[in-house]
């Protein structure tokens, strides 16, 4: 919190110097804004242990708190006619917010480094049946980062061995829980699934752990619903969980489209020289056009031409049938790590995702969005089963959760799960984080072939 307060004070002080504030009233106003800003960071719980280090909620709360400060200051500025406060709104607050976001990102990088050393914000024991425990281990291993470190496992049924595959100690019997908590140094218990005895067992467990001040974390069965869509409303001691319906239109989609237009237009202008150089390299490397156009399926099943820099030989589509027997992918996807159709230049274009750059034009045209589900081929859509077609409820993206979570290393089921999660739970803040993660993946590619 000290670092947050320092940034806020320095931002307000810098504007005070800029406007050469000498009046005691102006200095008092700037001091009041700084104190309000610090207070709102606390009230908005921007450093909540449940939010810090992982996900976009921490950044979103920073932005929300700053927006409230800006709105309050704007009302005061209009009411008093104080032009110096307007300068603080349009210069000091945006600059301070940018510095706060960079500071939080820097702390997050430090926390992730500590996580790789085996340290985390919370040491947890996972409780439940073996299958539920295995699922939680897999998910936390991929996504928890510095938030949780699993120090022990506890199942109701007898354990197969004393340790799991990754060396985590495994215990049997819920009656041992209070004994192993201090031994393992745990501060939280994750209940991975339903316990024998139902809700009564869960209530009894939480009461037993009160003495050791151990937090109880319950894994929800709503595994693909994001937190902002869930709210709890107690009615006479009965906690009712409300799940908001996903929205596929409305104001936030207008904001998303506006962001697509502005950022794609700027990107096309900035990347024009690079695209020219890449075009020359492709022409020199192999025969054929620079741009490869392919039919893809967009929102509500509408087809469009998706553009890419050509990274394969001209007759790649005809060669595909011959290579089907070597397919390394699962489900409806074709994957081949050492695909003979890829050209020399195409290999490193694909490695760093540079072949995707022309899709920025698709974004500007409105066929795609900067962030969204993977754009599918018509033959894939024709074989969709169950709820997979929900991927088409919003525009496909130039990047997405699939792009920053392993790309070609993902199997079909995991790719579909990520796309469906995004479709129902996306947010502008989340999109900005995915764009940032995409930039990092392009510099350090994983699963790109």
From TrEMBL:
Annotated keywords: Membrane, Transferase, Transmembrane, Transmembrane helix
Domain Bacterial sugar transferase, first and last residues per copy: 256-443
Membrane topology, from the record: Multi-pass membrane protein
Chief subcellular location: membrane
Subcellular location: Membrane
GO terms of molecular function: phosphotransferase activity, for other substituted phosphate groups
One Pfam family in the UniProt entry: Bac_transf
GO cellular component: membrane
TM segment ranges: 23-42, 62-81, 87-107, 261-282
Cited InterPro entries: Bact_transf (IPR003362), EPS_sugar_tfrase (IPR017475)
NCBIfam families, per the entry: EPS_sugtrans
Annotated family: Belongs to the bacterial sugar transferase family.
Protein's name according to its UniProt entry: Exopolysaccharide biosynthesis polyprenyl glycosylphosphotransferase
């Amino acid at each position: 919190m000290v670092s947050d307060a320092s940034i806020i004070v320095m931002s307000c002080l810098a504007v005070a110097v800029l406007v050469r504030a000498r009046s005691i009233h102006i200095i008092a106003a700037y001091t009041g804004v700084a104190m309000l800003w610090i207070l709102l960071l606390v009230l908005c719980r921007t450093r909540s242990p449940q939010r810090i280090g992982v996900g976009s909620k921490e950044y979103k709360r920073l932005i929300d708190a700053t927006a409230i400060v800006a709105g309050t200051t704007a009302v005061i500025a209009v009411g008093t006619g104080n032009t110096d406060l307007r300068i603080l709104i349009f210069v000091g607050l945006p600059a301070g917010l940018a510095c706060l976001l960079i500071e939080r990102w820097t702390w997050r990088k430090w926390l992730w480094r500590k996580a790789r050393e085996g340290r985390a914000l919370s040491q947890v024991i996972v409780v439940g049946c073996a299958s539920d425990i295995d699922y939680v281990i897999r998910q936390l291993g991929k996504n928890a980062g510095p938030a949780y470190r699993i120090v022990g496992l506890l199942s109701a049924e007898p354990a197969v061995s004393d340790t799991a595959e990754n060396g985590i100690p495994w215990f049997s019997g819920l009656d041992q829980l209070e004994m192993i908590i201090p031994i393992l140094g745990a501060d939280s218990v994750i209940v991975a699934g339903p316990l024998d005895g139902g809700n009564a067992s869960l209530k009894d467990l939480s009461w037993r752990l009160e003495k050791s001040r151990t937090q109880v974390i319950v894994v929800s069965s709503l595994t693909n619903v994001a937190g902002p869509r869930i709210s709890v409303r107690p009615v006479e001691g009965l906690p009712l969980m409300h799940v908001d319906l996903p929205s596929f239109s409305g104001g936030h989609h207008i904001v998303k489209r506006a962001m697509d237009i502005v950022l794609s237009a700027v990107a096309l202008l900035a990347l024009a020289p690079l695209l020219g150089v890449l075009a020359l390299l492709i022409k020199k490397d192999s025969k054929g056009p620079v741009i490869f156009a392919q039919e893809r399926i967009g929102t509500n099943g509408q087809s469009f031409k998706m553009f890419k820099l050509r990274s394969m030989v001209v007759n790649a589509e005809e060669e595909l049938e011959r290579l089907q027997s070597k397919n390394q992918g699962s489900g409806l996807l074709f994957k081949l790590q050492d695909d003979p159709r890829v050209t020399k230049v195409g290999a490193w274009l694909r490695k760093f995702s540079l072949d995707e750059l022309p899709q920025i034009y698709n974004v500007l045209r409105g066929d795609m969005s900067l962030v969204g589900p993977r754009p599918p081929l018509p033959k894939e859509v024709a074989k969709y089963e169950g709820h997979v077609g929900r991927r088409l409820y919003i525009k496909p993206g130039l990047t997405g959760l699939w792009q920053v979570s392993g790309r070609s290393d993902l199997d079909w089921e995991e790719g579909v799960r990520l796309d469906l999660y995004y479709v129902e739970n996306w947010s502008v803040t989340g999109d900005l984080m995915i764009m940032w993660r995409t930039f990092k993946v392009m510099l350090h590619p994983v699963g790109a072939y």
